[in-house]
């Protein structure tokens, strides 16, 4: 005797269907974001937000994408809707509103501590910057960059070299890391290592005025006056308002017996000082 198979259709509540649909669409938006298809990810997120204007995860991801696209005000508005304090703080930091950003970083999370450390570094409060990051156990190169620069500014050159070297290992294309490690090496009298780091920084960023200036100082200290003049000239070409470069170049030119050029640099330095 044969029996016909019977099937029961699984009927899901509409809200559950909507939730599943939102979850799948949000996952797809994250995938497109990770694949750097940012405009398509934004399109998916806008569709999600139209369906559910209270979906905080969508606003948060949208804010993150807009932040990466440099649309800071729009990013901030979306982070606000998501109640994403970290996101709002990042926008304010990017705008240079450091003290305003601190008001959103009121917990003890790793991310908040890292951002507070970055803010204190920007505010030149190096002790606080170091205090915020010294206990964070993470391989994020930014943490070691904050530590390293803070230690450099506090004269702890050996510690600075250790932390900056770790950051370089994780992020070897950041010219600033080599620049600050060079300053720490110079602080210890390791001029050869300092020069090597400065050369690497220039290779990574040929328009880094401070690096040429520091390299000029190293050349000058070794009596390589023409090479020092060349470095100071490159500094000035990149940043014509770099007063210290005119002063240092004038000193080197004077030692080379090129007094007319030296006096021209002194006049320019005085103009910049009074402006």
TrEMBL record:
The keyword Repeat applies. It holds the Pfam family TPR_16. The keyword Mitochondrion does not apply. PROSITE patterns: TPR (PS50005). Keywords: Repeat, TPR repeat. TPR repeats lie at residues 175-208, 209-242. SUPFAM superfamilies: TPR-like (SSF48452). InterPro entries: TPR-like_helical_dom_sf, TPR_rpt, Ycf3. This is Tetratricopeptide TPR_2 repeat protein.
